[in-house]
Amino acid sequence: MANRWRDIKQGNIKENLSSNKEEINDNPFASAPIGHRIKAFIVDMFMIMMPIMYITTYLIMDGKDDFQGSDEARWITALVFGLIIVLFWIAKGQTPGLKAYSLKLIDDNTKNKISLPKAIIRYLVFLISATTIILAFLPFFRKDKKTFQDLLTKSTVIQTEK
């Protein structure tokens, strides 16, 4: 082991190093890393969902107790959030969170932005998969890292160049 280290250090043997970035660049349409996708989702929640919830809770309703007691208010905030997310997907292919991490949502067939029906179906399936443990952890068990909504709508979140 010590001889090998010395040979590599002196340049007699080239060590084959590969990183995730090289693998991503080999296939530009491969799924983005799961960690980046989760971070992008968290950014979207803080930038889009939190202001919606604040406006609903304190400007439209009488405070947190009224908001927590109203199922309709929670569903309406989720649908408004979904509408904004769908508009970002069809207009730019990126939400603010996806853009922050250089990710983009594309259609597997056209390699372009997804259509309105696919975007709506994708968001509705996301709501279902987020509430199910098995579907939420699906990308951790797949080699291509695709989520249930990716598989159903034939779309992929890819890493773009910065």
Topology:
Elements: H1 2-10, H2 20-26, H3 34-60, H4 64-69, H5 71-91, H6 96-100, E1 103-107, H7 116-130, H8 133-136, H9 148-153, E2 155-159
Antiparallel strand pairs: 1-2
Helix pairs in contact: 3-5, 5-7
Description:
It is found in: Cell membrane. One of its GO terms (cellular component) is plasma membrane. It is a multi-pass membrane protein. Residues 32-153 form the RDD domain. Its main location: membrane. With 162 residues, the chain is mainly alpha-helical. The chain has one domain. The chain has nine helices and two strands; from the N terminus they run ααααααβαααβ. It has helices spanning 2-10, 20-26, 34-60, 64-69, 71-91, 96-100, 116-130, 133-136, 148-153; strands at residues 103-107, 155-159. A two-stranded antiparallel sheet has the order 1-2. Helix 3 packs across helix 5 (71-91) and helix 5 packs across helix 7. The longest helix has 27 residues, at 34-60.
